[in-house]
Design a protein that fits this description.
Alpha-Beta Plaits, four-stranded antiparallel β-sheet, two-stranded antiparallel ribbon, elongated
Amino acid sequence: MKRIEAVIPHEKTTELNEALKEAGVGGCTILEAKGRGKGEKAVVESGRGTARFVSEFSVRSNFVIIVGDSEVDKVINTILGTVSTGSTGDGKIFISAVNDAIDIGTKKKGETAVV
């Protein structure tokens, strides 16, 4: 099993979630996050709009998806096809191994716990 973690611009959250459903991904965890990197920073207006400043952090969404090894390429291609614009700030994808999983309710273990 693999853990795929995709950090993407917040405005792409709904679009990616729908694309993952269409691709047959059973579930994912979506976390709202702030981060900083090479991407363009948002310009924020203060109180009454009389002052503007560049935000230090960008609003991001962090998708966490656990899939079997055979599903990794499909999920990666779905993320890239949905989110990538070819510019800095599109986000990052991290892939790591998952040794085991346990469904708390059914007590199933391994890949059957995440299906």
